[in-house]
Amino acid sequence: MQIYLARNQVQAGPYTLEELNKMLSNRQVELSDLMWHVGMDQWKQVGEMTKGQFYYDPNATTSVNIPPRRVTVADLYGNKQPESTQSPVNQHPPFANNPIHNKSPINKNHNLQSAPSSSTNELATIGNRVIAVSIDALLLMACYIPFLSGLNYDFAAISETAGDMEKMTQLVQSVPEHLSSLTSVLFLVLFFLQLMLLIKRGQTIGKTVMGIRIVDVKTQKPASITNVILLRSLVTSALYALPGIGTLFLIADFVVMVINKQRLSIHDKLAKTMVVKADPKQLDK
Question: Which residues is 4 bridged to in the sheet?
Fold first, then answer.
């Protein structure tokens, strides 16, 4: 089977089925790219042919066995050849939508990822991810402002209680009850708001502000509750909180994200998620 791909009116191929699936697994081919092979009646999005998966099984797809005719330059400029002298229609892939803008086929070994992408699931930038996390951290810190005001922002006294539960308990009890209660209410409101955003939209407040979203690596839709809440959030937060080790894990997490082509951090790989620019189509069922 010879498979042709196209992106931004640039055609590439032919590729074998094995080559296509390898490029899909490496995300060199995106679900929004176009594809065609003998047996298809027209160019279609890769995601439509793979049912939203990053693996193509042609035996699982029903398609029309009459391939479309390729439009030639002679057809475009009114110098149409007689039907008997035209090339067989099933030997060349047609180009989608507007053949006038068809460019010459690019080399078979050309990496489609180097062409500008029109995919809605464009990877989020590292800067946007860092800013989003920073916004969420600042919101969490803001919840403790009433509590800290009850201590007159005496951070020296707070640091002295480190590791001493008795001193920490006494310090907490010294804060007026209404300020402690307000801190608890603010924390709970923030927690449930973040939780609902993650479940419904794959976003936190910070990610919403930065226009990015957490999606499942395979489906490109918001990840399951187990992956995004349990594995990605709770487990990661617990690892970050470990004395000494947590700091090392945070650094390693960031370094892995920077060097990975898909910007997958350790916790992304653990939860099988990725962070992309948000688009309403990602929320379609």
Answer: 36
pLDDT at 140: 94
Spans of all domains in the chain: 3-114, 126-283
Give dist(CA 41, CA 63) in Å, integer. Answer: 7
Q: What is the pLDDT of residue 110?
A: 46
Mean residue pLDDT across the chain: 80
Higher per-residue pLDDT: 156 or 100: 156
- Are the C-beta atoms of 40 and 61 separated by less than 8 Å? no
pLDDT tens digits along 169-181: 888 888 899 999 9
Query: How many alpha carbons fall within 13 Å on the CB side of residue 247?
Result: 2
